[in-house]
Amino acid sequence: MNGLDGWHRLHPLSPAVRAGRVLVAFIAVFLPTFLGGSRSGWDAVIHGVVLAVLIGLGVVSWLVTRWRVEGSNLRIETGLIRRSSMRYPLTQVQAIDTVRPGLARLFGLAELRLRMGGTGGSARLAYLPVKQADTLRARLLALATGSHEDTPEPEDEVLVTVPVGRALASLVLTLPALFLIAYFATLIAAAATGGSVTRTIAGYAAPAMIGNAVAFWRRFNRAYHATVAHAPEGLRVRAGLVETSAETIPRGRVQAVRLLEPILWRPFRWCRLDVDVAGQVRDRGGERRNERQLRAVLPVGSRAEAEQLLELLVPGAPQPVHKPPRRARWKSPLRYRRLSFGHDETYAVATSGRLARVQRWVPLTKVQSLRRIEGPAQRRLGLATVYIDTAGKRFGAAFRDLDGDDSLRELERLTDLARAARQA
């Protein structure tokens, strides 16, 4: 692996890829202003100057960034005024993901994202030539597992593949798609009344339309040719039409699992399987930033496919067999028939939902806190809810509307089981 020894820079076209993504964001932000009729020469000059400054900062960032592999560490140095040198121990690597946005694919580039355990955050190398990225990924995975650096990456075992037609049909039956349909229907109706009315409606509704269109596109891109494979380090999810991604859900990092059955999908017996993954994410400058921690393992699939993946994510998990008392109907008339819960020595599970059916599993080893809450209506009915919190922070589980005395017993029992699970 002499080709990967020593210091390396990112690909020279990396600033161009970032600039392309910034340009798309600019169009999305400032298009409503132009559609609303507020256009002047100074506005165009200001927008151009801001865009040029952002592109210039990207070039400077590329010039001052370099990386190398030092023994069992990945070292990244960056910064112009405040220089930082960060070392990422490969023994703490949880997963190494590959992401290729549309422009990166056009130039033959890819981004590597290393997700670390604990508070190590993540390391990003954006962007590298595809061949170099694949070679580096295999080398880093080998070093992370204690193998020889020339060990090839093991083959994946494909478990589930989502057909494109099913992915598109499922997205049509979602709120962003329904909002887009309603928007275009409003435009057609307004066009029949006059041009000025159409222009006014378009100017006011454009931000909502763009937001829903972007949300629809992102969900379609993430579901396009989605493939779930069984890899040595966990589940490997590949998907993408324009921006392709290959993400790994490592064993032991799953904080909670959610099975969602929307009401519009129910006639087709479709469901969605999400996982909540913990981990503090930091950029190359050490600053905190938001990153999507909620990952769709199965964007849309049958119940049989979801159960196959559940056996890998939460093997042997119990089913919700207990129901709240009948008087809970007065407090949750729409949700009562879906409320149920259960647990064993390893997992807790709860079912809820008004229109959609939502089922959640939480490993007891991942429990961060347990809460018992009584709302005003619950106090009158002698009910209480026990919440199970995890480090993922996107969703946990809740035993809703239990009998007051039962909720106290469940709280004590779950506390003891979570403590025992951590010790084991």
What is this structure, in a nutshell?
This protein is α+β, with helices and mostly antiparallel strands. 37% of the residues lie in helices and 30% in strands.
Brief descriptors of the model:
single chain, about 425 residues, alpha+beta, PH-domain like, 3 domains, seven-stranded antiparallel sheet, six-stranded antiparallel sheet
Describe this structure in words.
This protein folds into 3 domains: 2-142, PH-domain like (Roll); 164-223; 265-423, PH-domain like (Roll). Strands 6-5-4-10-9-8-7 form a 7-stranded antiparallel sheet, sandwiched between helices. It has a 6-stranded antiparallel sheet with strand order 13-12-11-16-15-14. It has a 3-stranded antiparallel sheet with strand order 1-2-3. The protein is 37% helix and 30% strand. The chain has 424 residues and is α+β, with helices and mostly antiparallel strands. Helix 1 runs antiparallel to helix 2 (41-63), helix 1 (14-35) runs antiparallel to helix 7 and helix 5 crosses helix 7 (195-223).
Largest sheet: 7 strands, antiparallel
Q: What proportion strand?
A: 25-35%
Shape: globular
**What average pLDDT do the residues reach?**
84
Helix/strand class:
alpha+beta
The value of Rg in angstroms is: 25 Å
Number of strands: 19
CATH names the topology of the largest domain as PH-domain like
The CATH first-level class of the largest domain comes to: Mainly Beta
Helix content: 25-40%
Which residues form runs of ≥5 with pLDDT under 50? Answer: 280-292
Cross-sheet strand order for the largest sheet: 6-5-4-10-9-8-7
Counted up, domains total 3
Architecture per CATH nomenclature, i.e. the level-2 architecture of the largest domain: Roll
Work out the helix count.
10
User: Strand-and-helix sequence, N→C?
Assistant: HHEEEEHEEHEHHHEEEEEEHEEEEHEEH
How far apart are the first and last residues' alpha carbons, in Å?
Answer: 41 Å
